[in-house]
Write a structure and sequence with these properties.
A hairpin with a 4-residue loop joins strand 26 and strand 27. The longest helix has 29 residues. The protein has a domain of about 110 residues. It has about 450 residues and is mainly beta. It is about 10% helix and about 30% strand. The radius of gyration is 22 Å and the shape is globular. The strands form seven sheets. Strands 2, 21, 22, 23, 24 and 25 form a six-stranded antiparallel beta sheet that branches. A five-stranded antiparallel beta sheet has the order 1-20-17-16-15, with no helix packed on it.
Length: about 450
Amino acid sequence: MQNYPLAADFPRTAAMARYSSLRAVAACILAVLLSACRETAQLSIAAGTGPTPQLPKPVKKLIPTTNVAKAIGWTAGQAPAVAEGMIVSRFAEGLDHPRWLYVLPNGDVLVAETNGPKRPEDEKGIKAFFKRRFVRKAGGATPSANRITLLRDADGDGKAEIRDVFVSSLNSPFGMALVGTHLYVANTDALIRFPYQPGAVKLAAAGEKVVDLPGGPLNHHWTKSLLASADGSKLYVGVGSNSNAAENGIDREAGRASIWEITLATRAHREFATGLRNPVGMALEPASGALWTVVNERDELGSDLVPDYLTAVRDGAFYGFPYSYFGQHIDDRVKPQRADLVATAVVPDYALGPHTASLGLAAARGNSLPARFANGMFIGQHGSWNRSPRSGYKVIFVPFDSGRPAGVPLDVLTGFLTADGEAMGRPVGVVVDRARCIARR
């Protein structure tokens, strides 16, 4: 007997074919438009770096600049170029989208193998369709492994001989902090904690929720970074915005674009500082004890705007988002404006170049690297997707003097892009232990 498809399958098959054809046509049209309309930077990265960066007039286009580097990964024997007087080697490999790092007191390295959760409200419309294509090209579309892996270099040769799943079944985990006998983990929607025994290669007990964090079906910036205060009484959580520049409505930004302070004894929380579009890396500056952060700034104002930045974080301060950037520079896409808030906007301490995607931050204290890296901050720059030519894709060091940035950035790791503009790696988390600087790549 000859088999025929059900009648209902015919229109479905035809619709699928039409959809595939429309997708192909749309992709071709987009490629032509992007090639024809791509805007090019008029300033160097250096011009957008330092305490007084150049901030030209915004460039607004119907189709913003896109210049995505295809992720291809590292092959055997490949490595980034390293600053003079240093050696770079693979500490571990074969990890599933490693994003963030934490060093335990015994030298064990924890790595969050993670990616964004399902965000149905952040995946609508034609713009979201093309954004997903760009993310896939850049290597960021993999499902989240939702685990933290422990890496141990038992013999001190710079390679992790022991590798174990430390904790799993998490929800897009990111930040980690050990305080006393508990390891705190920042999932995308909650801060949780686990009992920790020194030297453990697994966390045996179940996690306990400490406080909810902003999540939800939009959750535009999903990562939640984490830092303990010097005395261990408080935790600081970086919470990114729910938009590029408030296009989803100011009401969707409640509790976001800020650094939270959580008092562990009471579990009370408050917004320590606000107006920070996407504060990811955080560190305590050793000389002053001040909290510092790197902030990933807004897009779609041209290749020369807006610089990401490194800044000390003042208690109660407002840093502009979404109404303004770098102090009182108005973003007129945001309606209505808040002149009262803009008037109070703090100017960040140090620009890091436009679209460098500066995400990782680590204070230099206690390392045994060359002397020029003894005092300052290491910064992981994930790299641009919307600047021509590309920016970031490296690890840099900003020297400090008397607790403040002093001088131009120094390259630590470079060579993440091939001559053809493909990305072998994209730095994110950076940590320092007694002997090494370890960068996730």
